[in-house]
Amino acid sequence: MKLRKLFYIAGCCIMLASCDNSLDIEPTDQLTDASVWKTPTNAGLFLNDIYNNLNPGPQSTVFTNLPSEISNDPLDNFSDNSISGPLAGIPSYENFAQGSYGPSTPIFTPHWKNMYANIRKCNVFIKNVSASGFDEATKKGLLAQAKFLRAYFYKSLMDIYGGVPLITIPLNQAEQGDAIFYPRNTWEECVAFIQKECEEAAADLPLKVAAKDAGRATKGAAWALKGETELYASKWADAAATHKKIMESGAGYDLYPDYGALFLPANENNVEVIFDIQYAANIRGNIKEKYWNPVKVSDGGGWGAVNPTQNLVDDYEFLDGKTEAEGSALFDPENPYNNRDKRFAATIIYDGSPWKSGVIYTRLGVANNPNELDASGAGGKGRTGYFMKKAVDPAVVPGNSSGGNSIIWRYAEVLLNYAEAQNEAVGPDESVYAAIKKVRLRAGLPELPANLTKDQMRARIRRERRVELAFEGKRFSDIRRWKTAEAIFAQPLRAMKITLAGGKPVYEKVNAGGGKIAFDASKNYLMPIPQSVIAQNTKIRQNPNY
């Protein structure tokens, strides 16, 4: 059953009559506990339901699942990459930017609850399939997928809270009493758990899957999860080795030639995708085209919910490989968006951008223009002078569903992860340069300068990650694992104010209203464990200073 379909079983209820009232009749419109483990097909339906919980679709609550949430306040709004458009009721502004979040803030409880519900399903599946009479090859394939999924859900928790309780069996309080309450495992124990689970899963997962099984775990997906976990844990040699496995796997991964088109539904499951979450417009809708489009477009209107910051824009190099701050010879103060890294125009809608069948203007002075800059955000307009373009399908009318998949890992990230890990482990050797070169070549940029030091290469890799992976939910974790968030958030988030003088646009970088993020380094590198969880389980200790 293709994973873009929801876990779904339909049938007709069959009414049978019998003079023998003791006859047990198994229902035909649903799976019972007894029947679900009788055949691999039935067990596969249970597994499909776990896949279905990777992401529940459009949600206004954050942290439902990381980093793939389709929402009006996605994860990059919790970084310096973007600011939410409308302010009222938006957690990234009302909680995060104000530093007013704690154990009782409601954005955390659903995440914790949903991830452990998913983990329990994995535990139930693993227990029952292990005890089944399925043939060994089928059993191994099913168990490998479940182990991968369980590790995925655990990493989602670890990215937010650090070490969490590792539970690998189904819990039942009626049978086990207070033994169901586990303390938190250490961060190191959680990392080791994911390493082991992913390596075991990879051994029994296929290198590739058929088109009908798109979205199912592969060896590459298991290694990508393992490698990212190692990278986040600063296990540099391990991370480099794991990502090298993907690069040398023979699975055929490569960079898709068109960066902007890579993320559109017409090109889903392409050569660059290692693991993605499957969507279909007619089965499970997502409405990012409504959330993320500018406030006014030629065929309707969006929410403008993701406003890229000038801070991000300033990190896009010009085609000579330098930024404005580095003195690029191609920077023109009267045309600051010309001659940029190709990823810039593929990611960000800026003043004068052609979009759909019109042109988007964010400058002041255009009559009846809801897209113009209003840095305060009070007027429901854009707060930075920019809107998001990446992964927004221009062919879809805002409010309709594009059905676009949500990419979790792709080959460009593998190259960047390898380059970072290898640079930290041994320094900027030829393999580091080669990995970065491949990513930059697609963007139209020259090779990095020769003879960079480890520190210089580190800075270039971090900038490359920021622009290549913008709005894919990675920046949130990056600035925390690098311990750079306190320095980054000490600076205001910036906007571009454009006015007309003598008929020509004048560009001025200004502070975005509400664009100052409060960050307390003594606690905010981790999020708080929900208070409801601690109240229920006294063995769990809160993260420091919450």
Question: How would you explain this protein's 3D organization?
Answer:
- It is a single chain.
- With 546 residues, the protein is mainly alpha-helical.
- Helices cover 35% and strands 7% of the residues.
- The strands form five sheets. A two-stranded antiparallel sheet has the order 1-3. Strands 2-8 form a two-stranded antiparallel sheet. It has a two-stranded antiparallel ribbon with strand order 4-7.
- It is globular, with a radius of gyration of 24 Å.
Characteristic terms for this protein:
17 helices, 546 residues, globular, 7% strand, 35% helix, two-stranded antiparallel ribbon, mainly alpha, two-stranded antiparallel sheet, single chain
Total DSSP helices = 17
Rg of Cα set: 24 Å
Q: Which range best describes the helical content: under 10%, 10-25%, 25-40%, 40-55%, 55-70% or over 70%?
A: 25-40%
Rounded average pLDDT: 91
Order of helices and strands: HEHHHHHHHEHEHHEEEEEHHHHHEEH
Which structural category do the helix and sheet elements fall into?
Answer: mainly alpha
Spatial gap, N to C terminus: 45 Å
**Principal-axis shape:** globular
